[in-house]
User: Fold this.
Amino acid sequence: MAVVKANAYGHGLVPAAWTFLAAGASQLGVAFVEEGLELRRAGITAPILVLGGLLGQQIGAFLDYDLTIGVASPEKLRHVNEAAEQTGRRAKVHLKIDTGMGRLGKRWDRCAEFFAQGAASEHCDVLGVYSHFANADAQDPTFAREQLDHFLAATSFYEREGLPTPVRHMANSGACLGHPEAWLDMVRPGILLYGVYPGPEARRTIDVQPALTLKTRVVFYKVVDEGLTVGYDLTWRAPRTTRVVTLPIGYGDGYARALSNRGEVLIEGVRRPIVGRMSMDQCNVDLGDGTAYNGDEVVLIGAQGDGRITVEEVAAWVDTIPYEILTMLGSRIPRYYLDDSAAASAAASVG
Assistant:
């Protein structure tokens, strides 16, 4: 299962989904029903599991668009079964159990009745059972192994009762890298599919390359005299006469305001500092004695010449994680797909 939630981690929901399906993924995972609807409206017919929480009024959309429902409690399973009966459809569900994440799901040691209810539901097909690791990418594997043990103990219900075992899945990106024993019947990597490791402690058992480069271009060049300020709130004052360029990207695009006076970009392969407050739509970069021209390419994440700025580095500058940097990238930023794959075709079809 390829996880494409949060606009495919900022990479573009529909193009990424087509790419992963073309590469061999059998199913897709999203967080919210709206994401599943967008994929269906784009013509995708593969199974789509909505992993997140469920509201009762959403069940009709799941059934109308043939989306698989992540069900996290007996009460919600009853609601799904009743809705399916009323519409004359069969609901496809995966049952969610909590093995230690403490978020969604029936507790692993109290789920036998939940599983029995699913097996007895006349209008639901229980296709899968799943849980989620809390720290599969940690160097210490103790807690992850405990979670897996809990999951296996819980799902042994099916064998004990002589029932077919639904597809069991638990392995996120961290577990794909470091816990092959947790691969079970299906894996569901997320950020790893986009060429980013889930954390600094994650085992590098699979070699990946980042799929995304974030670029912009210079739109204005100026000389700033010593002592003059740049940007809101006067947070940066030129220590000497210097050259400053303006870039048409800001926190309104998901390029974090916390990068003010902290982040760096690449211009002609050389790192240059962001100076002054990040604006909603613009930011400024100090060239020092360097030179740049209107229209010159600027790399914010990725490589240029001999230089490289990684998403991990950007995340460290603002004390967050790569997931947040990628998923913040907004819809105002055009996405371009650089080959003739399914992604490029999908991008063209959605404008």
